[in-house]
Specification:
Strand content: under 5%
Structural class: mainly alpha
Helix content: 55-70%
Distance between the termini: 10 Å
Shape: globular
Number of strands: 0
Length: 138
Amino acid sequence: MAQDFICGSSLLEKRSEVLSPERQLQLVGGFMDTVREMYLRLKTYVKSVVCSSSLHELLDLLGVSDKLDGAVQMAQEWLCGDSLLTSSAVLLRSSGALEGFADTIKEIIQTFVELGRSYVCNSGIPDIMENIGLPDTL
């Protein structure tokens, strides 16, 4: 998502901090993809362990960055709760988690801007993520 934002057809100078509705939908989609991935990873553990663990214990168990705490917390709620929430309910209940994810994406975009468009647009995502020290789960 961040690479697409940098390498899209518009010039970097025209980009602003305000996300267009299309970018907001991409952000929500990216967040939900991350939640689903964390949910699938948590499902590989015994449910009682997942449901009795603290958020930080789960982050350590999964080996993911604290920046994914909102996604991991939501995945834990999905696994340990009575039912899955609809997308609308997710947004209403977890605006803080989504905001944290958005802030992380904005930080990544800023780092990409600093690295330069040429590097970001001509490198693979795994190489860029490794270079800037981000986990591939982002």
